[in-house]
Protein backbone atom coordinates (compact mmCIF):
# COMPACT_ATOMS: atom_id res chain seq x y z
CA UNK A 1 0.00 0.00 0.00
CA UNK A 2 1.39 3.42 -0.96
CA UNK A 3 1.91 6.08 1.68
CA UNK A 4 -0.78 8.25 0.08
CA UNK A 5 -3.24 5.33 0.04
CA UNK A 6 -2.56 4.66 3.72
CA UNK A 7 -3.11 8.31 4.56
CA UNK A 8 -6.32 8.31 2.49
CA UNK A 9 -7.69 5.31 4.39
CA UNK A 10 -6.84 6.83 7.75
CA UNK A 11 -8.50 10.20 7.27
CA UNK A 12 -11.26 9.73 4.63
CA UNK A 13 -14.50 7.69 4.83
CA UNK A 14 -14.44 3.93 4.22
CA UNK A 15 -17.31 4.34 1.74
CA UNK A 16 -15.32 6.70 -0.50
CA UNK A 17 -14.81 4.35 -3.44
CA UNK A 18 -11.43 3.91 -5.15
CA UNK A 19 -10.65 2.08 -8.37
CA UNK A 20 -7.93 -0.59 -8.58
CA UNK A 21 -6.25 -2.82 -6.00
CA UNK A 22 -3.38 -0.35 -6.00
CA UNK A 23 -5.23 2.98 -6.36
CA UNK A 24 -3.96 5.48 -8.88
CA UNK A 25 -2.77 9.02 -8.20
CA UNK A 26 -3.17 11.08 -11.38
CA UNK A 27 -0.84 14.07 -11.37
CA UNK A 28 -1.37 15.75 -14.74
CA UNK A 29 -2.99 15.40 -18.13
CA UNK A 30 -2.96 16.67 -21.69
CA UNK A 31 -5.48 16.05 -24.43
CA UNK A 32 -6.84 12.54 -23.97
CA UNK A 33 -3.94 11.34 -21.82
CA UNK A 34 -3.05 11.47 -18.12
CA UNK A 35 0.05 10.56 -16.11
CA UNK A 36 0.33 9.03 -12.65
CA UNK A 37 2.74 9.83 -9.82
CA UNK A 38 5.18 7.20 -11.09
CA UNK A 39 5.30 8.72 -14.57
CA UNK A 40 3.11 6.12 -16.30
CA UNK A 41 1.04 7.44 -19.21
CA UNK A 42 -2.57 6.41 -19.78
CA UNK A 43 -5.12 6.92 -22.52
CA UNK A 44 -8.12 8.26 -20.60
CA UNK A 45 -11.42 6.65 -21.64
CA UNK A 46 -13.34 7.81 -18.56
CA UNK A 47 -12.52 11.51 -18.19
CA UNK A 48 -12.92 11.69 -14.42
CA UNK A 49 -16.44 10.19 -14.71
CA UNK A 50 -17.37 12.00 -17.95
CA UNK A 51 -16.24 15.33 -16.50
CA UNK A 52 -13.20 16.17 -18.61
CA UNK A 53 -15.44 16.63 -21.62
CA UNK A 54 -13.26 18.35 -24.19
CA UNK A 55 -9.63 17.60 -23.25
CA UNK A 56 -7.22 17.63 -20.35
CA UNK A 57 -5.41 20.95 -19.90
CA UNK A 58 -7.37 22.54 -22.75
CA UNK A 59 -5.48 25.81 -23.38
CA UNK A 60 -8.63 27.84 -23.95
CA UNK A 61 -10.08 26.81 -20.59
CA UNK A 62 -6.77 27.14 -18.75
CA UNK A 63 -6.32 30.66 -20.11
CA UNK A 64 -9.88 31.70 -19.21
CA UNK A 65 -9.52 30.39 -15.65
CA UNK A 66 -6.12 31.99 -15.16
CA UNK A 67 -7.20 35.39 -16.48
CA UNK A 68 -10.40 35.44 -14.43
CA UNK A 69 -8.59 34.26 -11.28
CA UNK A 70 -6.18 37.16 -11.72
CA UNK A 71 -9.11 39.58 -11.63
CA UNK A 72 -11.71 38.09 -9.26
CA UNK A 73 -12.46 34.52 -8.21
CA UNK A 74 -15.64 34.98 -6.21
CA UNK A 75 -18.23 37.52 -5.11
CA UNK A 76 -21.41 35.38 -4.50
CA UNK A 77 -24.78 35.69 -6.21
CA UNK A 78 -25.62 38.77 -4.12
CA UNK A 79 -23.84 40.85 -6.76
CA UNK A 80 -24.21 41.07 -10.51
CA UNK A 81 -21.94 38.57 -12.25
CA UNK A 82 -21.25 39.10 -15.95
CA UNK A 83 -19.73 35.66 -16.72
CA UNK A 84 -22.71 33.98 -15.03
CA UNK A 85 -25.21 35.97 -17.09
CA UNK A 86 -23.21 35.31 -20.27
CA UNK A 87 -23.18 31.55 -19.70
CA UNK A 88 -26.83 31.47 -18.59
CA UNK A 89 -27.88 33.22 -21.80
CA UNK A 90 -26.03 30.69 -23.95
CA UNK A 91 -27.38 27.68 -22.05
CA UNK A 92 -30.95 29.00 -22.08
CA UNK A 93 -30.73 29.46 -25.85
CA UNK A 94 -29.33 25.94 -26.33
CA UNK A 95 -31.81 24.28 -23.99
CA UNK A 96 -34.87 24.22 -26.24
CA UNK A 97 -37.01 25.22 -23.25
CA UNK A 98 -39.21 28.28 -23.90
CA UNK A 99 -38.62 31.31 -21.64
CA UNK A 100 -35.86 29.38 -19.90
CA UNK A 101 -34.27 30.46 -16.65
CA UNK A 102 -30.94 29.04 -15.43
CA UNK A 103 -29.71 28.52 -11.88
CA UNK A 104 -26.10 27.46 -11.29
CA UNK A 105 -24.94 24.99 -8.66
CA UNK A 106 -21.63 23.28 -7.92
CA UNK A 107 -22.53 19.69 -8.90
CA UNK A 108 -25.04 17.40 -10.54
CA UNK A 109 -26.24 16.25 -7.13
CA UNK A 110 -27.04 19.83 -6.15
CA UNK A 111 -28.65 20.47 -9.52
CA UNK A 112 -30.99 17.49 -9.09
CA UNK A 113 -31.68 18.54 -5.50
CA UNK A 114 -32.72 21.98 -6.78
CA UNK A 115 -34.88 20.47 -9.52
CA UNK A 116 -36.70 18.38 -6.93
CA UNK A 117 -37.25 21.46 -4.78
CA UNK A 118 -38.71 23.34 -7.74
CA UNK A 119 -40.92 20.49 -8.92
CA UNK A 120 -42.33 19.59 -5.51
CA UNK A 121 -42.96 23.24 -4.66
CA UNK A 122 -44.58 24.01 -8.00
CA UNK A 123 -46.78 20.93 -7.86
CA UNK A 124 -47.34 20.93 -4.06
CA UNK A 125 -46.55 17.24 -3.92
CA UNK A 126 -43.63 15.29 -2.48
CA UNK A 127 -44.25 12.20 -4.61
CA UNK A 128 -41.67 11.65 -7.35
CA UNK A 129 -41.51 9.11 -10.17
CA UNK A 130 -38.03 7.76 -10.93
CA UNK A 131 -36.62 5.01 -13.09
CA UNK A 132 -35.35 1.67 -11.89
CA UNK A 133 -31.55 1.38 -12.18
CA UNK A 134 -31.21 5.20 -12.00
CA UNK A 135 -28.64 7.35 -10.22
CA UNK A 136 -29.13 11.03 -9.40
CA UNK A 137 -26.50 11.98 -6.83
CA UNK A 138 -25.27 11.77 -3.26
CA UNK A 139 -27.46 14.21 -1.29
CA UNK A 140 -30.25 13.01 1.01
CA UNK A 141 -32.98 13.81 -1.51
CA UNK A 142 -31.01 12.52 -4.53
CA UNK A 143 -30.27 9.22 -2.80
CA UNK A 144 -33.99 8.97 -2.05
CA UNK A 145 -34.85 8.84 -5.76
CA UNK A 146 -31.90 6.71 -6.87
CA UNK A 147 -33.04 3.30 -8.13
CA UNK A 148 -29.67 1.59 -7.82
CA UNK A 149 -29.06 -0.35 -4.60
CA UNK A 150 -25.29 -0.09 -4.84
CA UNK A 151 -25.51 3.71 -4.55
CA UNK A 152 -28.44 3.99 -2.14
CA UNK A 153 -27.17 3.81 1.47
CA UNK A 154 -30.49 4.63 3.15
CA UNK A 155 -34.21 4.16 2.57
CA UNK A 156 -35.00 7.30 4.53
CA UNK A 157 -36.08 10.20 2.34
CA UNK A 158 -38.07 13.46 2.37
CA UNK A 159 -39.78 12.20 -0.79
CA UNK A 160 -42.16 9.39 -1.66
CA UNK A 161 -40.54 7.70 -4.63
CA UNK A 162 -42.30 5.36 -7.05
CA UNK A 163 -40.15 3.50 -9.57
CA UNK A 164 -41.21 3.09 -13.19
CA UNK A 165 -40.27 0.47 -15.78
CA UNK A 166 -38.30 1.39 -18.90
CA UNK A 167 -34.78 2.62 -18.19
CA UNK A 168 -33.18 -0.72 -19.09
CA UNK A 169 -34.06 -2.11 -22.52
CA UNK A 170 -32.42 -5.54 -22.37
CA UNK A 171 -33.43 -6.71 -18.88
CA UNK A 172 -36.61 -6.93 -16.84
CA UNK A 173 -40.12 -8.22 -17.55
CA UNK A 174 -40.45 -6.44 -20.92
CA UNK A 175 -37.02 -7.30 -22.36
CA UNK A 176 -38.33 -9.87 -24.86
CA UNK A 177 -40.74 -7.40 -26.48
CA UNK A 178 -40.07 -5.39 -29.63
CA UNK A 179 -39.20 -1.72 -29.16
CA UNK A 180 -42.76 -0.63 -29.94
CA UNK A 181 -44.22 -3.26 -27.62
CA UNK A 182 -41.70 -2.34 -24.92
CA UNK A 183 -42.78 1.32 -25.03
CA UNK A 184 -46.44 0.34 -25.01
CA UNK A 185 -45.97 -1.96 -22.00
CA UNK A 186 -44.03 0.69 -20.06
CA UNK A 187 -46.68 3.32 -20.81
CA UNK A 188 -49.44 1.00 -19.64
CA UNK A 189 -47.47 0.30 -16.46
CA UNK A 190 -47.12 4.05 -15.87
CA UNK A 191 -50.86 4.58 -16.37
CA UNK A 192 -51.63 1.78 -13.94
CA UNK A 193 -49.22 3.20 -11.35
CA UNK A 194 -50.78 6.65 -11.58
CA UNK A 195 -54.17 5.12 -10.90
CA UNK A 196 -52.98 3.98 -7.47
CA UNK A 197 -51.26 7.05 -6.07
CA UNK A 198 -51.78 10.71 -5.36
CA UNK A 199 -50.60 12.92 -8.25
CA UNK A 200 -46.78 13.01 -8.32
CA UNK A 201 -44.74 16.18 -8.75
CA UNK A 202 -42.47 14.96 -11.51
CA UNK A 203 -40.79 12.13 -13.34
CA UNK A 204 -36.99 12.38 -13.21
CA UNK A 205 -35.05 10.32 -15.74
CA UNK A 206 -31.60 10.05 -17.28
CA UNK A 207 -31.94 9.67 -21.07
CA UNK A 208 -29.04 7.21 -20.78
CA UNK A 209 -28.44 5.83 -17.31
CA UNK A 210 -24.85 6.59 -16.41
CA UNK A 211 -23.92 4.78 -13.19
CA UNK A 212 -26.45 2.14 -14.23
CA UNK A 213 -24.08 1.00 -16.98
CA UNK A 214 -25.00 3.24 -19.95
CA UNK A 215 -28.39 1.59 -20.42
CA UNK A 216 -31.31 3.31 -22.12
CA UNK A 217 -34.86 2.70 -23.37
CA UNK A 218 -35.88 2.76 -27.03
CA UNK A 219 -36.00 6.25 -28.52
CA UNK A 220 -39.38 7.83 -27.90
CA UNK A 221 -40.19 6.23 -24.55
CA UNK A 222 -40.07 9.47 -22.59
CA UNK A 223 -42.06 11.24 -25.30
CA UNK A 224 -44.76 8.61 -24.82
CA UNK A 225 -44.50 9.00 -21.05
CA UNK A 226 -44.82 12.77 -21.50
CA UNK A 227 -48.22 12.41 -23.12
CA UNK A 228 -49.43 10.57 -20.02
CA UNK A 229 -47.71 12.98 -17.62
CA UNK A 230 -49.23 16.00 -19.34
CA UNK A 231 -52.72 14.70 -18.69
CA UNK A 232 -51.97 14.85 -14.96
CA UNK A 233 -49.87 18.03 -14.99
CA UNK A 234 -46.82 16.02 -13.89
CA UNK A 235 -43.46 17.62 -14.74
CA UNK A 236 -40.65 15.92 -16.67
CA UNK A 237 -37.12 16.42 -15.31
CA UNK A 238 -34.35 15.29 -17.69
CA UNK A 239 -31.15 14.52 -15.78
CA UNK A 240 -28.54 15.48 -18.39
CA UNK A 241 -25.57 15.42 -16.01
CA UNK A 242 -23.87 12.71 -18.08
CA UNK A 243 -25.70 12.83 -21.44
CA UNK A 244 -25.65 16.56 -22.16
CA UNK A 245 -23.47 18.77 -24.39
CA UNK A 246 -23.32 16.44 -27.42
CA UNK A 247 -21.77 13.36 -25.84
CA UNK A 248 -24.32 11.07 -27.48
CA UNK A 249 -23.33 12.39 -30.92
CA UNK A 250 -26.75 12.26 -32.50
CA UNK A 251 -28.17 14.93 -30.20
CA UNK A 252 -26.94 17.86 -28.14
CA UNK A 253 -29.17 16.77 -25.26
CA UNK A 254 -30.07 13.19 -24.48
CA UNK A 255 -33.76 14.11 -24.15
CA UNK A 256 -33.89 14.98 -27.86
CA UNK A 257 -34.11 11.26 -28.65
CA UNK A 258 -37.48 11.53 -26.88
CA UNK A 259 -38.43 15.01 -28.04
CA UNK A 260 -41.60 14.26 -30.00
CA UNK A 261 -43.76 15.66 -27.19
CA UNK A 262 -41.59 18.74 -26.67
CA UNK A 263 -38.72 19.60 -24.35
CA UNK A 264 -38.63 18.70 -20.65
CA UNK A 265 -40.03 21.10 -18.08
CA UNK A 266 -36.71 21.01 -16.21
CA UNK A 267 -33.21 19.99 -17.32
CA UNK A 268 -30.30 19.43 -14.95
CA UNK A 269 -26.67 19.54 -16.03
CA UNK A 270 -23.13 19.40 -14.61
CA UNK A 271 -19.93 17.41 -15.19
CA UNK A 272 -18.70 18.14 -18.71
CA UNK A 273 -19.68 21.80 -19.01
CA UNK A 274 -16.95 22.85 -16.55
CA UNK A 275 -14.34 20.45 -17.97
CA UNK A 276 -13.32 19.68 -14.38
CA UNK A 277 -14.40 22.91 -12.72
CA UNK A 278 -17.34 22.65 -10.30
CA UNK A 279 -20.27 23.69 -12.48
CA UNK A 280 -23.79 22.32 -12.32
CA UNK A 281 -27.18 23.83 -12.90
CA UNK A 282 -30.88 23.71 -13.60
CA UNK A 283 -32.82 24.99 -16.62
CA UNK A 284 -36.56 25.43 -16.23
CA UNK A 285 -39.50 27.36 -17.63
CA UNK A 286 -39.79 30.69 -15.86
CA UNK A 287 -43.02 29.89 -14.01
CA UNK A 288 -41.39 26.79 -12.53
CA UNK A 289 -38.05 28.43 -11.70
CA UNK A 290 -39.80 31.42 -10.13
CA UNK A 291 -42.22 29.40 -7.99
CA UNK A 292 -40.17 29.68 -4.79
CA UNK A 293 -41.54 32.27 -2.38
CA UNK A 294 -38.45 32.70 -0.21
CA UNK A 295 -35.04 34.23 -0.84
CA UNK A 296 -32.15 32.03 -1.87
CA UNK A 297 -28.56 32.34 -3.02
CA UNK A 298 -25.76 30.05 -4.14
CA UNK A 299 -22.50 30.84 -2.43
CA UNK A 300 -20.30 28.89 -4.84
CA UNK A 301 -22.72 28.23 -7.71
CA UNK A 302 -21.94 30.49 -10.65
CA UNK A 303 -18.72 31.91 -9.24
CA UNK A 304 -16.78 33.97 -11.75
CA UNK A 305 -13.89 31.59 -12.28
CA UNK A 306 -16.09 28.54 -12.91
CA UNK A 307 -18.32 30.51 -15.26
CA UNK A 308 -15.26 31.64 -17.21
CA UNK A 309 -14.25 27.99 -17.55
CA UNK A 310 -17.75 26.98 -18.65
CA UNK A 311 -17.94 29.71 -21.27
CA UNK A 312 -14.54 28.84 -22.73
CA UNK A 313 -15.30 25.12 -22.70
CA UNK A 314 -18.73 25.49 -24.31
CA UNK A 315 -17.34 27.81 -26.98
CA UNK A 316 -14.59 25.32 -27.81
CA UNK A 317 -17.08 22.44 -27.99
CA UNK A 318 -19.38 24.30 -30.37
CA UNK A 319 -16.66 25.86 -32.54
CA UNK A 320 -14.89 22.51 -33.03
CA UNK A 321 -18.11 20.48 -33.52
CA UNK A 322 -17.25 17.99 -30.81
CA UNK A 323 -20.78 16.65 -31.00
CA UNK A 324 -20.08 15.68 -34.60
CA UNK A 325 -16.76 14.18 -33.56
CA UNK A 326 -18.53 12.14 -30.86
CA UNK A 327 -20.93 10.85 -33.50
CA UNK A 328 -18.23 9.94 -36.01
CA UNK A 329 -15.49 8.59 -33.75
CA UNK A 330 -17.96 7.12 -31.29
CA UNK A 331 -19.71 5.24 -34.09
CA UNK A 332 -16.39 3.77 -35.21
CA UNK A 333 -15.46 2.85 -31.64
CA UNK A 334 -18.77 1.09 -30.96
CA UNK A 335 -18.47 -0.99 -34.13
CA UNK A 336 -14.84 -1.79 -33.35
CA UNK A 337 -15.78 -2.96 -29.86
CA UNK A 338 -18.64 -5.06 -31.20
CA UNK A 339 -16.20 -6.77 -33.53
CA UNK A 340 -13.77 -7.29 -30.64
CA UNK A 341 -16.33 -9.07 -28.46
CA UNK A 342 -18.12 -11.03 -31.17
CA UNK A 343 -16.48 -14.29 -30.07
CA UNK A 344 -16.47 -13.57 -26.33
CA UNK A 345 -19.26 -15.55 -24.61
CA UNK A 346 -18.84 -13.41 -21.49
CA UNK A 347 -19.94 -10.19 -23.22
CA UNK A 348 -23.70 -9.85 -23.21
CA UNK A 349 -23.99 -6.53 -25.04
CA UNK A 350 -22.11 -3.52 -26.41
CA UNK A 351 -24.49 -0.56 -26.24
CA UNK A 352 -24.59 3.22 -26.24
CA UNK A 353 -24.29 6.06 -28.68
CA UNK A 354 -21.62 8.60 -29.44
CA UNK A 355 -18.84 8.52 -26.88
CA UNK A 356 -20.99 6.95 -24.17
CA UNK A 357 -20.49 3.19 -24.55
CA UNK A 358 -21.26 0.30 -22.22
CA UNK A 359 -19.87 -3.24 -22.45
CA UNK A 360 -21.91 -5.57 -20.24
CA UNK A 361 -20.14 -8.67 -18.91
CA UNK A 362 -21.96 -11.81 -17.79
CA UNK A 363 -20.90 -15.30 -16.84
CA UNK A 364 -20.79 -17.32 -20.09
CA UNK A 365 -24.05 -19.02 -21.00
CA UNK A 366 -26.06 -17.04 -18.45
CA UNK A 367 -27.51 -13.59 -17.80
CA UNK A 368 -25.74 -13.48 -14.43
CA UNK A 369 -23.55 -10.42 -13.90
CA UNK A 370 -19.80 -10.96 -13.66
CA UNK A 371 -18.43 -8.17 -11.43
CA UNK A 372 -15.20 -10.07 -10.76
CA UNK A 373 -14.32 -10.09 -14.44
CA UNK A 374 -15.30 -6.43 -14.78
CA UNK A 375 -12.84 -5.55 -12.01
CA UNK A 376 -10.19 -7.76 -13.65
CA UNK A 377 -10.68 -6.06 -17.04
CA UNK A 378 -10.22 -2.65 -15.40
CA UNK A 379 -6.94 -3.84 -13.87
CA UNK A 380 -5.69 -5.39 -17.13
CA UNK A 381 -6.59 -2.29 -19.15
CA UNK A 382 -4.77 -0.07 -16.68
CA UNK A 383 -1.69 -2.27 -16.86
CA UNK A 384 -1.60 -1.68 -20.63
CA UNK A 385 -2.21 2.06 -20.37
CA UNK A 386 -5.99 2.52 -20.63
CA UNK A 387 -8.38 3.93 -18.01
CA UNK A 388 -12.06 2.95 -18.22
CA UNK A 389 -14.97 2.93 -15.77
CA UNK A 390 -17.54 0.44 -14.60
CA UNK A 391 -21.18 0.47 -13.50
CA UNK A 392 -24.36 -1.53 -13.59
CA UNK A 393 -27.62 -2.25 -11.87
CA UNK A 394 -28.11 -5.40 -9.80
CA UNK A 395 -24.34 -5.90 -9.87
CA UNK A 396 -21.46 -3.84 -11.22
CA UNK A 397 -20.52 -5.70 -14.39
CA UNK A 398 -20.69 -3.12 -17.20
CA UNK A 399 -17.55 -1.47 -18.50
CA UNK A 400 -18.09 2.26 -19.11
CA UNK A 401 -16.24 3.91 -21.99
CA UNK A 402 -16.55 7.71 -22.15
CA UNK A 403 -13.46 9.51 -23.46
CA UNK A 404 -13.16 13.28 -23.94
CA UNK A 405 -15.16 14.36 -26.98
CA UNK A 406 -12.02 15.41 -28.89
CA UNK A 407 -10.92 11.76 -29.17
CA UNK A 408 -9.17 10.98 -32.45
CA UNK A 409 -9.71 7.95 -34.67
CA UNK A 410 -6.17 6.74 -33.92
CA UNK A 411 -6.79 7.01 -30.17
CA UNK A 412 -10.09 5.17 -30.52
CA UNK A 413 -8.31 2.34 -32.32
CA UNK A 414 -5.55 2.28 -29.69
CA UNK A 415 -8.04 2.12 -26.84
CA UNK A 416 -10.11 -0.58 -28.52
CA UNK A 417 -6.97 -2.69 -29.03
CA UNK A 418 -5.99 -2.36 -25.37
CA UNK A 419 -9.52 -3.24 -24.24
CA UNK A 420 -9.50 -6.24 -26.59
CA UNK A 421 -6.32 -7.49 -24.92
CA UNK A 422 -7.76 -6.92 -21.45
CA UNK A 423 -10.90 -8.89 -22.31
CA UNK A 424 -8.86 -11.74 -23.79
CA UNK A 425 -6.57 -11.96 -20.78
CA UNK A 426 -9.50 -12.27 -18.36
CA UNK A 427 -11.55 -14.98 -20.09
Could you please describe the fold and organization of this structure?
The protein has 427 residues and is α/β, with parallel strands linked by helices. The protein has helices at residues 3-11, 47-50, 59-71, 82-95, 108-123, 140-144, 179-194, 221-232, 286-289, 304-319, 322-340, 371-383, 409-425, and strands spanning 26-30, 33-36, 41-44, 100-105, 127-131, 160-164, 202-205, 235-239, 266-269, 280-285, 347-353, 356-361, 386-387, 389-391, 398-401. The strands form 3 sheets. It has a 7-stranded mixed beta sheet with strand order 4-10-9-8-7-5-6, with helices on both faces. Strands 1-2-3-13 form a 4-stranded mixed beta sheet. A hairpin with a 2-residue loop joins strand 1 and strand 2 (33-36). Helix 3 (59-71) runs antiparallel to helix 10 (304-319), helix 7 (179-194) packs parallel to helix 8 (221-232) and helix 12 (371-383) crosses helix 13. The protein starts with a helix and ends with a helix. The model has no long low-confidence stretch (mean pLDDT 96).
Annotate the secondary structure layout.
Layout: H1 3-11, E1 26-30, E2 33-36, E3 41-44, H2 47-50, H3 59-71, H4 82-95, E4 100-105, H5 108-123, E5 127-131, H6 140-144, E6 160-164, H7 179-194, E7 202-205, H8 221-232, E8 235-239, E9 266-269, E10 280-285, H9 286-289, H10 304-319, H11 322-340, E11 347-353, E12 356-361, H12 371-383, E13 386-387, E14 389-391, E15 398-401, H13 409-425
Parallel strand pairs: 3-13, 5-6, 5-7, 7-8, 8-9
Antiparallel strand pairs: 1-2, 2-3, 4-10, 9-10, 11-12, 12-15, 14-15
Amino acid sequence: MSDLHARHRKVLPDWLALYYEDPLEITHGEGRHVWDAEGNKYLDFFGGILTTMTAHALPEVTKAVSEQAGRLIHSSTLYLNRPMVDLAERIAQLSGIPDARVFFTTSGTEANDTALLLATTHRRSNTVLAMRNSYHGRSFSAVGITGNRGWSPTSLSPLQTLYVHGGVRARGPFAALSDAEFIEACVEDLKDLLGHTRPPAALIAEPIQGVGGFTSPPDGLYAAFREVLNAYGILWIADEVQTGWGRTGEHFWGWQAHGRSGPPDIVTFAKGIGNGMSVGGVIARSEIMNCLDANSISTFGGTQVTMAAGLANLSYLLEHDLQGNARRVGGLLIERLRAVVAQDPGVREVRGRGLMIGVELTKPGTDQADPDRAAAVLEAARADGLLIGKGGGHDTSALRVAPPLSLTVAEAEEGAAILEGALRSTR
